[in-house]
Design a protein that fits this description.
The protein is α/β, with parallel strands linked by helices. It is built from eight helices and six strands; from the N terminus they run βαβαβαβααβαβαα.
């Protein structure tokens, strides 16, 4: 298996038998597993990080993208099932937060292992409508403008029209995936939930973050991180520090 060939479809490396704690990370809409580049080094050796790569991007670009969240979660449950055999947690950013929530729900429903914590960032409570839903009716040019304004892309991409066309098509499919989630079909989870919000996120407010409070029967806490929608990139060391503190019961600086 090469470094560009996902193991089992979703992971670029096989989880190690010596792992003591695993953190599975789910990327944002229009993104890929590379969004978590560097996390492995920052969290080692206490936590083994496994970014999850969805089909249709980066090393899986030739595979058809999934537009139905129920089907995707069923696939993830099957592929990742053998690797939740020791303490683990999920972190999902933006669209990834919804995927992590739905996967946690699937594990609980079948009586499987539960994550120690569900960590979600830049996404409102799952009973609310998906953010950026209004983008679906925008032209490619306007959608590209919004992506650049939100910090998801650099202005330099405008000089590569073939690439931006492919990027917008990927985002449209990911937004369809988010829309396939039914906001009225939500459950309280017997798992603590920690929600991260960028203090300058134009797509997510503190009130949106508070909507997660009703989705855990154990506990919920909200954390504000400096940055916009992609604070996971802008304030990565601070976010990693907070995640480490949560997973190991240490004092948390951002709150």
């Amino acid at each position: 298996m090469t470094s560009t060939e996902p193991a089992g479809g979703f992971l670029y490396r096989e989880p190690g038998a010596a792992d003591e704690f695993r953190l599975f990370c789910f990327h944002h809409a229009g993104g890929g597993a590379s969004a978590f580049r560097g996390w492995r080094e920052l969290l080692a050796p206490a936590v083994s990080v496994y970014p999850v790569q969805l089909a249709g991007r980066e090393g899986r670009v030739s595979e058809p993208r999934q537009r139905d969240i129920r089907t995707l979660v069923a696939e993830l449950d099957t592929w990742l099932g053998p690797y939740v055999d020791r303490p683990f947690a999920f972190y999902g950013h933006s669209m990834g937060a919804l995927i992590a929530y739905r996967l946690t729900r699937a594990l609980v429903a079948r009586g499987g292992p539960r994550p120690v914590s569900l960590l979600v960032g830049a996404y409102p409570g799952p009973h609310q409508r998906a953010p950026l839903e209004q983008m679906d009716g925008l032209s490619d040019a306007h959608m590209l403008d919004m992506l650049i304004d939100a910090g998801g892309l650099s202005e330099t991409v405008r000089g590569f029209p073939k690439w931006t066309t492919a990027m917008v098509a990927l985002l449209r499919d990911d937004l369809a995936l988010c829309r396939s989630h039914q906001p009225d079909d939500c459950a309280r989870l017997p798992v603590p939930i920690h929600v991260f919000t960028g203090d300058a996120d134009p797509m997510m407010s503190a009130a949106d973050a508070e909507q997660w409070a009703g989705h855990s029967s154990i506990g919920y806490r909200s954390h504000v991180i400096p940055g916009g929608h992609f604070f996971n990139r802008e304030s990565r060391p601070l976010l990693i520090s907070a995640i480490t503190a949560i997973l190991f019961g240490q004092p948390i600086t951002p709150s």
